[in-house]
Amino acid sequence: MKGKGWPKWARFMIKDWYYEDKGRAHDEFGEVFLVVSPGDLVCYVAAAKTAMNITSSQRKVFLKMREKTKMLDLFGPSVATTNGDAWRFHLRITLPPFGDALRQLVWVETRRQASMLAKAWTKNGVGQQLKHGIYLLTVNVASLANFGRRGDWTDGPENTPPNHKLSLAAAITLLNDYLGQILLMPKWLLAAQGVTEPDGRTGFTNKEIKGNLFLFLAAGYETTANSMLSSCIFLALHGDIQDRIIEEVDCVHHQAIEVSRVELSYTDDMPKFRYLTSFMYESLRVFTIVQSITRKVYEPQNLLVHDSSTGETRNVQLPAGTAVIINNVALHFLPLNWPSPHVLEPRRWLVSEPNTFDPLEKPTAAQEADMAAGTTPIPNHERGTFMAFNEGLRACLGRIFAKAEFVAFFAHMLRDHRFELDEDVSPADVERIMRLRSGGSVVTLTPSENVRVRLVPRKK
Ligand code: HEM
């Protein structure tokens, strides 16, 4: 080691190494490689087809890791922490509410919250409040969707119910701030109540209801908040992208006014936000909020490995107890999957073959035609090349919920305002922070610094 820095394997011990590494480990050791350590065997995967073999496996072999799910089962088991038949049972109950009615509610409530937030930010300035404001807005939307409780965009005493010390939003924000410590706390300290589970039941027990409510907050709130937070910063950095979104926002509003509609609606207007939706996917590709998908095999298991460059396949046997980690960041930064991967370019998602669009080349005639027609489905990438929401059996249940919230938020904010960096903030420093550093949240990737932006009235 003398004078040669850290040994190569040391990187795997650093939390969030995926983000800072951007797939370099796979350039060195291969698309699929095994780390053998005294504690564990870990198989890292950055090949799209192999990743899909893992996430789409119908056989009950690549399972959520018990060590991890046990920690998340703080209040009870949930759809995200169960495997096999128990998971199917949870899914049957939790999936139906995720329909159009919920998305419409999310759309309307996000616009209402965004309007309060815009007023506060234009009056008092954003200052250090960007993260706080967006987190609070997301909590309020989640609390209406999950608990039916509407809170205004403030966590002040006026929102605290009688006989309580905190508003719901303040309690959730606090829970999130201390999630790391709470998850590691012995269960008995949390004074969990014993609940008898009836046999042959058709509904959830109290424990399962609590488990799922906690999970929906944990899975849905910080992820969505961080995707909106990082996107505000990207917009302040990339004025050209922001200009195009503003053009789209104005155009959709104009079309609504022409048919005498004052407010934008989820059903009529959400599908028109093609560029804004593409921006969401692109910022999730570059700023990979969920950096990895973790599974484990509890019995010896064959893994069908596809070589992406030759197309050859081979079977490798994984010993029982091997952790299998799909490296989402590497999949998002592989030039084979995404040409010139470091370039933030929403237009990739507007063409029929997003994985062939090179932002550093002039678009082909076919790509120009796709963009002009505006009819290709979004997203339309090759499966396994974009894993921000996971793909396959255990894909995110809240992805359309998150998309409705994201689009409603930016469509509202950019109607009369734009995001800019504070005058004394260096764009080059912010770009470096965003691309190279992870903020170290327990669950998700978060910007590592509270970047100072301004919400300024648009010149019309
Ligand atoms: C931008 C926002 C979001 C991102 C990036 C995201 C990402 C993900 C990812 C990567 C997974 C798969 C984890 C794995 O397989 O190990 C997942 C699962 C899940 N997500 Fe999301 N999520 C987002 C928003 C939401 C929202 C808003 C909700 C709920 C309201 C939600 C609910 C869930 C649930 C319940 C699962 C577990 C599904 C299962 O295991 O069957 N997510 N999410």
Automatic annotation (TrEMBL):
A matching Pfam family: p450
InterPro entries: Cyt_P450, Cyt_P450_CS, Cyt_P450_E_grp-I, Cyt_P450_sf, Cytochrome_P450_monoxygenase
Similarity remark: Belongs to the cytochrome P450 family.
UniProt entry tagged with the keyword Metal-binding: yes
Binding positions for heme per the UniProt entry: 396
Needed cofactors: heme
Keywords: Heme, Iron, Metal-binding, Monooxygenase, Oxidoreductase
Cited SUPFAM superfamilies: Cytochrome P450 (SSF48264)
Name by which UniProt lists this protein: Cytochrome P450
Keyword Iron: yes
GO function terms (MF aspect): heme binding; iron ion binding; monooxygenase activity; oxidoreductase activity, acting on paired donors, with incorporation or reduction of molecular oxygen
Higher taxonomy: Eukaryota, Fungi, Dikarya, Ascomycota, Pezizomycotina
Gene3D superfamilies cross-referenced by the UniProt entry: Cytochrome P450 (1.10.630.10)
